[in-house]
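Format notes (please read before filing issues)

Several people have asked whether sequences and structure tokens are stored in separate files. They are not. Every record keeps both together, in the order shown below: the sequence lines, then the token lines. Line labels are part of the format and must not be stripped during preprocessing.
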Amino acid sequence: MLNIRRRLKIEHWQVIAFLMIAYDIIMVNFSYFLALWFRFDCQFTEIPRIYFDAFALFAPIYTIVCIIVFACLKMYNSIWRFASFQELVHVVLASGITTVTHVVGITLLFQSMPISYYIFGAGFQFVFTL
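Then the structure lines:
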């Protein structure tokens, strides 16, 4: 009985990794929504339907890509209390890869977006995932 409990025990680092993944899922999408919202003067009703639909349809795809890229760059394995230059390099690299993925993916699959959307979205994502 005791061995079963030990096997099912969730380690602290697993909880933290799960919370970091959940945070990233929210923030990568919020970043680009915020960029779209800012582009149209902070008026949700002013966002053209075609842009919002493209954003909404691409969000699940982009979320999966981001989590895979972040995991491949071992962003969920770090102890951020002791973050080093290497972790910063991983964040910059992950932001670059996911930004290019976002620009190319949403443009080819759905709709070309305003330039400010790409720029502000990438900037917000970098800051929020730092």
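For reference, the curators noted about this record: The helical segments are 2-8, 12-39, 49-72, 85-109, 115-128. The mean pLDDT is 88.
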